[in-house]
Write a structure and sequence with these properties.
It contains one helix and five strands. By secondary structure, the chain is an alpha+beta fold. Among the domains are: about 1-40, no CATH class; about 45-85. The strands form two sheets. A three-stranded antiparallel β-sheet has the order 1-2-5, with no helix packed on it. The chain is elongated.
């Protein structure tokens, strides 16, 4: 395998030969380029617009990873246990509140009568 170095560090490799045969019996031998293993463009070699787009890409990627992979699953797990607890507490509170209010009012009247 032979390799040539591109202008920005990408390596282009060639297979030795590929033989293609047609239906008519003709053969053709070619060298085909392989895709580079890595492509790297340093930040200082980029244009101004490309630098801005790269920074926006990084910001969106950070938001995407933080929200969808960390915050969202934690929130769903938390809410799946917390919401039923809250709903049951509020429904319980609505049933018990009149009884508690009546008891507090009755105790207040008893205390007022004892103090007189």
């Amino acid at each position: 395998m032979r390799s040539n170095r591109g202008s920005r560090g990408a390596q282009i490799g060639f297979k030795k030969s590929i033989t293609l045969k047609s239906r008519h019996g003709k053969t053709k031998t070619e060298e085909l380029p392989l895709p580079p293993k890595t492509v790297y463009i340093s930040f200082k070699d980029r244009t101004c617009g490309n630098k801005v787009c790269r920074m926006l890409y990084k910001l969106f990627k950070i938001f995407y990873v933080c929200f969808w992979f960390y915050f969202s699953p934690f929130t769903i797990l938390f809410l799946s246990y917390y919401l039923p607890f809250i709903m049951s507490e509020y429904s319980e509170q609505e049933r018990v509140r009149p009884i508690v209010d009546a008891e507090i009012e009755g105790q207040a009247q008893e205390i007022a009568l004892v103090m007189l």
